[in-house]
Each structure stands twice: as structure tokens, then as C-alpha cells.
Amino acid sequence: MNKIVARAPWLWPLLRAPMRRFFDERARGWDERTGAGSVEHLAPLAAAVMHVRPLPERVLDVGCGTGEGTLFLAREYPGAGVRGIDISEEMVRLARAKVGLDPEGRVDFRVGDASHLPWPEESFDLVAQLNMPPFFAEIARVLRPGGLAVVAASWGERTPFYTPPAVLERGFRRHGVEPVEAGAAGEGTFFVARRRE
Predict the structure, then answer these.
(1) The pTM is what?
(2) Which of 1, 73, 120, 171 is deepest in the core (most CB within 10 A)?
(3) Could you give the CA distance from residue 61 to residue 128 in angstroms, rounded to a whole number?
(4) pLDDT tens by residue, 83-131
(5) How many DSSP H helices and E strands does the chain contain?
(6) Distance (Å, rounded) from C-alpha 138 to C-alpha 73?
(7) How is 39-66 classified by DSSP, letter by letter?
(8) Phi then psi for 158, rounded to 5 degrees?
(9) Which of 155, 157, 163, 104 has its CA nearest to residue 139?
(10) Rounded Cα distance, 63 and 49, in Å
């Protein structure tokens, strides 16, 4: 499925409904089954954000699931507005329940499709995704010039939605987003790229 999204994104409409059902049905107990939010799960995302400079003001987590990556980014960037988006209504419901008191509305979650992000062009300084197939054109569209894209995979090549670095590099370059850094952390991998100014 990941290869289809990365190499033939026009086929995504055929896969959207089954994927939504799959994640809606598995949302309850997801964190416990997958280790979401654990040090191991977040290690590649944590390593990737070490390469994010300057500090972002607006952050988007694509495919946020139950919100563990989004909440990590909110802790990492306490001055930023952080948004999470996921195709699964049930995942987003669970993510919203984790926010607690947020009088400034700094963290928010939305149900939506990564292939058609509901924000205008150049909305974010950082677009991150953890264990999610990349929609290169949409990530590039919502990134501000000079903004960074982060793709992390918790278990490297064993991650169900793993995308090899060569595919990430080609896909992002086609949309004016240039590689900055790639590496490994724990069992996972990360890739960081910057949109040309």
C-alpha cells in the first residue's frame, strides 16, 4: 500500500475507504497494542527534530493516529501551534481526549485526508509524519518556503508504512523539497527535507 501511495498517489481514492475502516475498527486499544507513545516508538521522530532549525511556529502532524506524535511535537515546541490530522474519526476522537486543558487552543486535531489537506498553501513551518505514507505534493503545498518536512518510521524497514530514503528523496525533490538529513534512531529511521525558498 505504501508503494502505491508514494509512486501512484492517483490510486489513493480506491484505498481511502478501506483504510479509514481499518483504522476506525482498530483505534480502541491501539496505543497498548502498538506501543504508540513509547520511547522506542517516538525515537526516530525525536532524532529528526534535532535537525529542525529555526524553531517552527506552526506544526502539522500528518496521520496523527491517537495523537502521540502530535503531543510530542507540542512538548518539543511549546511556542508553536500544533495540528494533527488523521483519516480515522475514531483515532482523532481518542487523540482529542488526550489534550486536556489547552486554553490557548495550541493543539488541535482534525479528521481529514492527507491527499487533500484542509489548509491553504504555505501554512506550516514543519510538517511531520510518523509511520505514514508520504503525499509529497500536499506536504510541499502546505510548507512555507524554508519549511521542513520530517518522515519517521518507528521500526525502520519493518514499519508497515515504510518508505525508502531514495523514494523520499525523489518524491520530495520533484516538489521543490530538498533533503537535509537522514539517519537512524533506536530501531527506526528518519528523513528531513527543506522546501526551497
Answers:
(1) 0.88
(2) 73
(3) 5
(4) 999 999 999 999 999 997 675 789 999 999 999 999 999 999 999 999 9
(5) 8, 7
(6) 20
(7) HHHHHHHHHHHTT--S--SEEEEET-TT
(8) -85, -5
(9) 163
(10) 17
